[in-house]
Amino acid sequence: MMLTAVFDTKPYDRDYLAAAAAGRPLQLVFHESRLTADTARLADGMAAVCAFVNDRLDRPCLATLAAGGVRHVAMRCAGFNNVDLAAARELGLAVTRVPAYSPYAVAEHTAALVLALNRRIHRAFNRVREQNFSLAGLVGFDLHGKTCGIVGTGKIGRVAAEIFRGFGMRVVAYDPMPQPEWALQRGVEYLSFDDVLAASDILSLHLPLTPETHHLIDATTVARLKPGAIIVNTSRGKLIDTTAVIDALKQGQLGGLAIDVYEEEEGLFFEDLSDTVLQDDEFSRLLVFPNVLITAHQAFLTREALGEIARVTVDNLVRGSRGEPFLPDTLL
Q1: Domain that holds residue 127
Q2: Confidence (pLDDT) at 267
């Protein structure tokens, strides 16, 4: 029976992972704490660990894991910018991920954020609960006929583009590795990054976090946007320079912001902090804007996505314990 320490777990993680592991030669030991250098000793004697997006798998953490006997790090997410892959290789640790659990979950949440922000649904919901039926300040705009810019046309970006095309929008896209056949079939136009910024009424980000994409949206790129544009980000928080976006919102250059990720979300998202005072001044500032909508990294949270994440993660853990090849495209 292979012992695996599973970090940063919530009830839904435990439910789906336990169901996927039922009847398999795998014993999961769940921890609510995040995986860091300080908590890595909890995995001593385990053959593998399972981690999530806000765990910190830097060199000290990975060294402690390796010293304790861990040989496999299974990330139950697509992103891996929080893992020191060079250190993992030096220490002989295999690192796997779930590269594609449900592009529909994230793309549909992207559309939901756009609709809710544009039509002020979050504000209307709160008003009605207070028996305030005024419509003042709730005016939105038709998506039909407007332009949506998709930055990044991987699986999620392509699904998002097709959804926005379904609203009758013109969809323009930028990707350093374009897919012209798909674009031709779906009526999507590839443009340069600057031209996408200039054309977009809605700009939707679907990119991995790399040194090249860090703060892709900063003061310079925001200034190139069409005045009044809305930015939506369901990818990685550090794609956006929060300070620059706050300035653009204050100046009216940016018409709105809808985010499911935040650049300093570690220790913030996935936790109940309702009885505490938020220490992040920039996040607190975002919360007061009427044209900002934030969800706490829930775009992936559908039954289908959770089931696929659990299936791929458990399959790879079992394969690793048997010395078998990992599932295609999951080994980093």
Answers
A1: 103-294
A2: 83
